[in-house]
Design brief:
The complex is a heterodimer of chains A (424) and B (288). Chain A is α/β, with parallel strands linked by helices. Helices cover 43% and strands 22% of the residues of chain A. Chain A is built from 15 helices and 16 strands. Chain B has one domain. The chains are: A alpha/beta (424), B mainly alpha (288).
Chain lengths: 424, 288
């Protein structure tokens, strides 16, 4: 007790009584923690945490994801809940602010003591909260397509990775339009790493990369770039541009009359409703590859779309892979809990590692024990008159990029994101 | 040759865009010394007015050239009456107030219209320069920028209103002694500045991703340009736009967009070091 009290040092005016009160509260909290934990276990609801940006620049991505997990939770609750208990979804709006991610992650783990957290949109946000959930032993699902390489037994990544999508998109583009590629990408870790994969697959398929240009997220004027691209004269433009400012590229590209001159293939276009907000004359012919499109014509997909439309009205944003991943991620976790017969973290992880699969809107989705990623379908689609024409599907794609560096069966204590060494 | 032509055209478009974005700020900051951090949001509101009016069936040109500036000018009027008029002469306080205002506008627009990207496609199509193609809409942007500069110049230089405005900005007490009501002139000037911001938003709407947060992409460049321009708002803003617009365009073309931005900032830092009062603090001092 003779150590200087930091509280007192920070507030010189703090009285002895305040100090006593604070210490008592802290002490009381420490003693009460196990009690609270026990009560949480015994209560009749299961708490599920969610961290999504519902406002700020990323709010348009988060909104659809939040709708999807709400639908998932409602379905499970209507069917009698999990282990006889109802699920209570606790979401915090992280407002496109990384600081809030760390703050709310601690709140979910320590105060709300949730059984699992589904959330994070950008790779930056995931890397901010992953250590928090590791530290406090909270199970974490990251349900977004991303650049691959996360290797951590405490997390499950249910979105597609470049081996599942870029590997299909680039060969299609090169064989349909020609071998010269011009790569444009957003200037943060997702864009940088995805651009490397694009370059790698271009070379693997006998193509050549003319240039790789990165754009900070606040760039709105693309005229110099459009001139550069015209000067280089590629056979295809590969785009990993991100965010509302970058939408301007497609507008200016079409305004310059380039849309039907040089085709565009993208790993990001259409994830946040671009297909509705751009005119057909600005988007027609753009080809993308994702793990899900709302046009997919299976009963599960149709049921998913109509469930969201019934709950939130038909004027909702396009239901993209982001929404689908979040829904399927939640359903995978629920299947894990059922199999484990408990919401206890290790029990659920072990149950999921047996290779659980569910039939989601995108088709069959299976957990891969080795990488904690998923084996899932991938699709190629082309924008036609403000909707996606899904013209090719690749069933049961393996996350082979992450598998090349990550083996959680052999080394279960791994905890890092490998930057996959792409020879670019 | 064709490439040079294309680059020149792009540079002109870039300069015109910058001029449009900066004129409103030039009036509000340069003349009134109000650090209006909500300038980007005024531009955003202009873009929203245009998109909604055009989608509601209003003629696109009417929407962007008339409705957007008038609507945002009126919003500026309300803002001036409710907040700004209490803060004249308190330059730091205006910063705080207008920053709060910018957050509030973003919040209101987001809750009313949702956090999604909207837009209208650019009219006019494209035209060839040699074997390159570029947007005919760029010609329109250049034309609007030129007309806006000339119009503002004529307004301030040749009309009685312009004379009164300049007198009030120069010496409000003297103007008041001569029978002018400075509060009214301030109000009108602020609305005028907001109106120009609205015009910029309207004209840029077809080539931008229109979203509640789009203002943030403009605000820094606008302030750098207006500060670089110095006290003579029209001449200064035009020269600074020409300088920064060319640097940005050429650096981006020759290197990458990242270095384009770096080059722009570097140029601004060097200029502020040698011309702390801005370009027109040293040359063209007597211009407008």
């Amino acid at each position: 007790m003779d150590k200087p009290n930091p509280l007192q040092a920070a507030t010189p005016g703090a009285s002895r009584r305040n100090l006593l009160k604070t210490s008592a509260a802290v002490l009381g909290g420490a003693l009460a923690a196990p009690l609270v934990a026990r009560r949480a276990e015994a209560s009749d609801t299961i708490k599920v945490g969610s961290l999504l940006d519902l406002s700020g620049p990323l709010g348009s991505s988060g909104l659809g994801m939040y709708q999807a997990i709400q639908v998932g939770v409602e379905e499970v609750n209507k069917a009698g809940g999990l282990l006889g208990k109802q699920i209570q979804l606790i979401n915090y709006d992280t407002q496109s602010n990384i600081q809030l991610y760390s703050q709310y992650a601690q709140k979910l783990a320590l105060q709300d003591q949730v059984a699992v957290v589904h959330g994070g949109i950008t790779s930056a946000s995931r890397e901010a909260i992953r250590p928090v959930f590791d530290r406090y032993k909270t199970l974490y699902f990251y349900n977004v397509l991303y650049e691959g390489g996360v290797c951590d037994r405490d997390i499950f990544c249910t979105g597609t990775t470049p081996a599942q999508t870029v590997q299909k998109l680039v060969p299609y583009a090169l064989s349909s339009w020609g071998k010269k590629a011009y790569i444009i990408a957003a200037d943060y870790n997702y864009g940088q790493i995805t651009a490397k994969w694009m370059a790698k697959y271009t070379r693997d398929n006998g193509g050549s990369v003319q240039s790789v240009d990165f754009f900070p997220l606040d760039v709105t004027d693309f005229s110099a770039t459009i001139s550069k691209i015209q000067q280089a004269g590629p056979s295809v433009v590969l785009s990993a541009l991100v965010g509302s400012n970058h939408t301007a590229f497609y507008r200016q590209w079409a305004a310059a009359g380039m849309l039907h001159k040089i085709p565009i293939a993208s790993t990001t276009f259409g994830l946040v409703d671009e297909i509705h907000t751009l005119a057909a004359s600005e988007s027609d012919g753009i080809v993308t590859s994702y793990g899900y499109y709302q046009e997919i014509d299976t009963p599960a997909s149709k049921a998913f779309v109509s469930a969201i439309e019934t709950k939130f009205g038909s004027k909702i944003p396009y239901i993209s892979e982001l929404s689908c991943d979040n829904y399927e991620g939640f359903k995978l976790w629920a299947a894990g809990v059922k199999k484990a017969g408990s919401t206890e973290r290790m029990a659920v992880i072990k149950a999921l590692e047996t290779g659980i699969s569910i039939d989601g809107p995108s088709g069959k989705v299976t957990i891969d024990h080795q990488t904690h990623h998923v084996i899932r379908n991938a699709y190629l689609a082309k924008a036609v008159n403000k909707s996606w024409d899904v013209f090719k599907s690749y069933p049961n794609q393996f996350p082979s990029d992450t598998a090349a560096v990550c083996n959680l069966i052999k080394y279960p204590r791994t905890d890092k994101q490998y930057v996959i060494d792409v020879k670019a | 040759m064709a490439l040079t032509g294309l680059l020149l055209f792009n540079t002109l478009t870039g300069i015109a865009t910058l001029v449009l974005i900066c004129l409103g700020l030039g009036i509000i900051y340069g003349m009134m010394k109000i650090i209006n951090l909500a300038h980007g949001e005024f531009v955003m509101l202009g873009a929203y007015v245009t998109v909604f009016a055009a989608n509601a069936g209003v003629n696109l040109w009417v929407a962007m050239l008339i409705l957007a500036p008038v609507a945002v000018g009126l919003i500026g009027l309300v803002v001036e009456r409710c907040f700004i008029r209490f803060l004249y002469g308190r330059i730091i306080d205006t910063m705080l107030a207008s920053w709060g205002l910018s957050l509030a506008i973003i919040g209101i627009v987001t809750s009313l219209f949702g956090n999604t990207v909207r837009g209208i496609s650019a009219p006019l199509g494209s035209f060839p320069i040699g074997h390159y193609r570029t947007s005919l809409y760029g010609v329109f942007i250049i034309a609007v920028a030129v007309l806006a500069v000339v119009g503002l110049y004529a307004l301030l230089r040749m009309t009685r209103f312009g004379l009164v405005v300049r007198a009030t900005m120069g010496n409000p007490r003297m103007a008041a002694a001569l029978g002018v009501a400075p509060p009214r002139i301030y109000m009108a000037t602020f609305a005028l500045g907001a109106g120009f911001a609205g015009l910029a938003g309207g004209v840029l709407a077809p080539v931008s991703g229109v979203s509640p947060v789009m203002g943030a992409a403009f605000i820094a460049r606008a302030f750098i340009t207006v500060l670089g321009g110095g006290p003579a708002i029209i001449t200064g803003t035009s020269i600074a736009s020409a300088l920064f617009g060319s640097i940005d365009e050429f650096a981006t073309f020759l290197t990458t967009p990242v270095f384009g931005q770096v080059a722009l900032l570097l140029a601004a830092i060097i200029m502020i070091r040698f011309l702390p009062q801005g370009i027109t603090g040293r040359v063209f001092r007597r211009s407008l």
